[in-house]
Predict the structure.
Amino acid sequence: IAKLERYRPTLHFAPKQNWMNDPNGLVFFKGEYHLFFQHNPNDSVWGPMHWGHAVSKDLIKWEELDIALYPDELGTIFSGSAVVDWHNTTGFFPEEPGLVAIFTHHLEDEDHTPPVQTQSLAYSHDKGRTWVKYNGNPVLSHPTKVDFRDPKVFWHQPSQKWVMVLATGQTISIYSSPNLKEWEFESEFGENIGSHDGVWECPDLFELSIENSNEKRWVLIVSIGDNPKFEVGSRTQYFVGSFDGSTFVAENGDIRWLDFGKDNYAGVSFSDIPKEDGRRIYLGWMSNWRYANEVPTEGWRSQMTLPRELTLRETNGGTHIVQKVVRELDEYFTIKKEVKDLSVGIKNSNNYEMNAEYAEVELILENIDACRYGLTIHHTATQSTTITIDAGEKLLFVDRKESGNVDFSSNFSQTQKIKLEGTKRNHLRVIVDSSSLELFMNDGEKALTSLLYPDQACASISLFATEGQVNVIHGKFSIPSNE
Ligand code: FRU
C-alpha cells in the first residue's frame, strides 16, 4: 500500500482508483461543492469516458461518490458543465430546483469515423447522487464540425437566457437558449487572435471585477491541446474583453497564459456560487497531455489543482487575471517558523526543517545585489526542487530535474519559467503537496503549477543567494495544522 499510495496528495483531489482528466460540472448547490471529472473507471490510462463525482463542503476535503454519468448509445461522456435550474426553465423541476449537466456525447466506432460529438443533458433531483438522461438528447449537433465539445453554460441575466461556450476546432462558438434544450448560434470567436498552437478545448466565459475599482470585464479561458510540434504540451490561455450576451470581443491583442507551469489544464470555474459569497472559483486538471498517461502513480492517475479565486488586476498597462488559492486552505496550515529582516548570502544560506506531508512557504524578498537567489525544497536528502530568480535575465525558473522520479518522460525535466517585470522585490508563495508544487508570485499575479514525484513531500526548505545578498523582509514557513 505504502508504495502504491506514496504520491497520493493530501490537499488535492485525486480519484481513489483509475484514470481522471478534466474537472467537469463544477457547481455549488445546497451547501456542497460538486466536482465531476473525466474518468475511466476501468483503467489507469485514458479510455471510455464517464463522469466521476466528488463533493466537498470546503473545496479542500473531497468525498468521492458513485459515478454520475455512464456512456450510452449516443457515446461516451466527454467534458461539460452543470447549472442549477432555479426557475425550472427546462421543465425538469416542477417541485423544486435541481441540477442539470450539459455535456458532450462522443461517438466513435466503425460507423463513426471521424467521431461525432454532440451536446446532451442529464438532470438530478437528489443533489447530484443520481441522474436521468434527457430523452430528447442530443440537444445540439453540427453537420460538419468534428471538434464540437466541452459546453460551459451559464445564465446571462441581462438577456434572460442561457449562454453556452463551446470548443469548435480552433475557435470558440457561442450559443444561447431559453430552456437548455433549444440552442441558437450567436457568434464565433478566435479566428485571428490568441495562440493556435493546438486544438481549442474547455472554454469558460465569466465576468470578473477589477481589484480596487468598480469596473468589470469579461474573461474567456481557453485550453490548448497538446501538439507534438511544440515542446510545452497542453496549456491554457485567456482573453479579457466584453460580452453582450451574443458576442465576445477581446481587448488584449497579446497572448496571455493562465499558468507558467506545465501542469494546469482544462480548468473551468464553479457555477452558482451564492451572491453573498460572490467569488469566481477556478479548478484545473493538474497534468499535461504530453505525459499524463505515463506519470508514475499506480492504480490511480491524476489530481486537480488547488481551487483558486480569480480576480482582475491592472498591471503593466493591461488587465490581467490574478489567482489566489481559496482562503479555506488556511485552516490546513499552522506556522512553524517566521523570520523578519534576515540577510541571505553566500556565507549564510538558511535551512528550515519542515518534515511535513505538505508545506507552505511565503517570502517577501528584496534583492540587494545578488545575481541569482531563491529557495530549494528538499524533499529528501537527495531529491529537491529549486526555484531561482535570475536578476540579470529577469526570469524565475522552477527546476524539477532532481525532484525524484522524472524518467517517465523526457519532457518532464524541462525548466519551467516566468518572465519577471521587476526583480528588486518579490513576493513568493509556494504550496508543496506529496506530488506537486504551486507557486504564486506577487499576490497571485503569476502562477506556476508543477507536478513532482519525490519519495516524500518536504524534509526542509533552504534559501540561497549567489554573488551578493538578499534581504528576507518577511518569511513564513507552515506545516499541517493538527485538526
Ligand atoms: C480536454 C479534453 C476535452 C474532452 C476531454 C475528453 O482535456 O480533450 O476536450 O472533452 O478531454 O476526455
